[in-house]
Design a protein that fits this description.
By secondary structure, the chain is an alpha+beta fold. It has a domain at 2-74: Arc Repressor Mutant, subunit A. 46% of the residues lie in helices and 22% in strands. The protein contains 9 helices and 8 strands. The strands form 2 sheets. Strands 3-1-2-8 form a 4-stranded antiparallel β-sheet. A hairpin with a 5-residue loop joins β1 and β2 (97-104). α2 (23-39) runs antiparallel to α3 and α2 runs parallel beside α4 (63-74). It is globular, with a radius of gyration of 18 Å. The two termini are 21 Å apart.
Length: 251
């Protein structure tokens, strides 16, 4: 799992820079809206919304924007916009499997844009189910590691229900079962740990190692997906060793 968490950290750094251009805010607002629509506007009874609110606060999303997104999702505010969650599957350069999650108010536009990215960068978009069997859903929580004892933290995380813990750069990355993400996050927060982010990810069950050129081609394609306002997450089964991650940091 180390590859994905390191790539997530690279994404996180890029996200802080992109926040100025509101792309990160746009994606967070969509998640707030969808979470409120599915489970209601009360975060105490809606774990997905609770997580979305915490992530919105971590990204410094203005309170008014947050409240408006929640009201839009719960039906208290009708501005004519609705979002639906969609997923796309396909292959990138070198046969790397891609699973793309998106939230859109215009599915035809999003399908066209996603297909264009696949095609332009040497990949091809597949049908639903063509690669989803290569991934399993997990929870991932990132906690700044500065000032924390690794062994003590690992014990606390396991006690909180974590499935695995890894030390990646400046973060402890906690993995959970999909259904336990909210509970583990809450337990860690109540223990006094600062939560940097908490999200559901799709972890590849088998990974594919590539050479530097193929890695670079895939990183360029991943960046284009990430830049699309409708795309929420991009997951691949490319093996992220230190060499390929060094390339990623310079994409």
């Amino acid at each position: 799992m180390a590859g994905h968490s390191k790539w997530a950290n690279i994404r996180h750094k890029k996200a802080k820079e992109d926040a100025k251009r509101s792309k990160v805010f746009t994606k967070i607002i969509k998640e707030l809206t969808i979470a409120a629509r599915e489970g209601g506007s009360d975060p105490t009874g809606n774990p997905r919304l609770s997580l979305a609110i915490d992530n919105a606060k971590a990204a410094n999303l203005p309170k008014d924007n947050m409240e408006r997104a929640i009201k839009r999702g719960s039906g208290e505010l009708d501005d004519g916009s609705t979002f639906e969650e969609v997923t796309f599957e396909g292959y990138g350069p070198g046969g790397i499997a891609y699973f793309v999650e998106a939230a859109t108010d215009n599915n035809n536009r999003t399908v066209s844009e996603i297909r264009h990215i696949f095609t332009k960068h040497g990949g091809n978009m597949g049908t639903n189910g063509s690669v989803s069997f290569l991934f399993e859903q997990k929870g991932m929580i990132q906690i700044p590691s500065e000032g924390l004892d690794e062994e003590e933290f690992m014990m606390d995380a396991i006690d909180a229900g974590a499935e695995d813990v890894q030390n990646e750069d400046d973060f402890f990355v906690v993995y959970t079962e999909r259904t336990e993400l909210f509970n583990v996050r809450k337990a860690l927060e109540e223990s006094g740990f600062k939560i940097e982010s908490a999200e559901l990810i799709r972890e590849a069950t088998t990974e594919t190692k590539v050479d530097a050129d193929t890695a670079l081609s895939n990183f360029k394609m991943m960046e284009k997906f990430e830049e699309n306002d409708d795309v929420s997450n991009v997951f691949t089964n490319m093996m992220m060793d230190d060499e390929t991650l060094a390339i990623a940091e310079n994409v």
